[in-house]
Amino acid sequence: MNIIAMLLSMELLSLASDQAPVSPTSKDCAAEIFAGGTVSDTGHEIFRGVFAPGNDKFYFFRSLQGAENYGIFSSSKNGVNSWTTPERLTLGENHSDFYPALSPDGQVMVFSSYRPAPNDPSEKTNANFWKIQRTEDGWGEPEFLAVISSFQQYDNRAHFLNDGTIRFSSASADWTETHEYVSQLSAEEYTPPALDSDREQFREWAHAQPELFVWTSDLSPDGLLAIIEVSTRNEDGRPGPSDLWYSQKLNNQWTVPKPIASGANTVEGNENFPTFSPDGKTMVFVRDFESFYTLPTSCVTRHPEAEK
């Protein structure tokens, strides 16, 4: 299917989806800051975070001193609305680790790292994928994921779906080209990655609209909802702050992406790094690299103006 035909079919599905009944109220759809003063709004530059199964533990990464130096931290639920002070996961030797992703059962964490990879011929270490397995004493030793890693590439933003696939992005060392990939866990081994057609089409959609720029996208655990980081280009063509857009998979087709209308985006803020709780009911995102926010997933496709 060429790009024009794809966009036309997506538009028809989008019109149909707009007629679906809406249930959440405006109050229900307010984005709420997560763990303010403990995880959010602490003066640290924070990035992508994920909940463990049960939503009682939260993993995220934030900047450390030095260029491209990051650490993965965890916070545990402590009471009804309280969370513990984040503690760093050292994961063996002290290296720059980031982009944690948890398997659906919470027993495996895949993450990006600048730690030296075995047999890497590159003169300059880049980010590749590693994994750790949960043990009785916490987490085991990091293992290099050679099958889904690409030397001299920046491998990042892994996330798991309920179907056993792992989705991720990989960028060239100079960041001139980025693609989305998918791999299947089979017999405890990952299959060689293939282009992720579900998410690659959002890049094609943006290429057809010069005023827009797509950074990347993440899928809900059931694979039926995509949250896309979209920026509008300024006069000199540079991408501005990102907003969160969405697309739904209906009858095996994706609807035309639209900005999330309730609760997520701000006029001048930078909203990015979307993830979902393991049960898919809550979306988590970052605003201005300072705070995590949560929003019910049911609010993502809601358009308040349609109810007036």
In short:
Helices cover 9% and strands 42% of the residues. It is mainly β and 308 residues long. The strands form 5 sheets. Strands 6, 7, 8, 9 and 10 form a 5-stranded antiparallel sheet that branches. Strands 11, 12, 13, 14 and 15 form a 5-stranded antiparallel sheet that branches. Strands 16, 17, 18, 19 and 20 form a 5-stranded antiparallel sheet that branches.
Question: How would you characterize the overall build of this protein?
Answer:
By secondary structure, the protein is mainly beta. The chain is built from 2 helices and 23 strands. The chain has helices at residues 3-18, 197-207, and strands at 32-33, 46-51, 57-63, 70-76, 87-89, 97-102, 108-113, 128-135, 138-139, 143-144, 153-160, 165-172, 178-186, 189-190, 194-195, 212-219, 225-233, 239-250, 253-254, 258-259, 271-276, 282-287, 291-296. The strands form 5 sheets. Strands 6, 7, 8, 9 and 10 form a 5-stranded antiparallel β-sheet that branches. Strands 11, 12, 13, 14 and 15 form a 5-stranded antiparallel β-sheet that branches. The protein is globular. The two termini are 37 Å apart. Mean pLDDT is 89; it is low at 1-23.
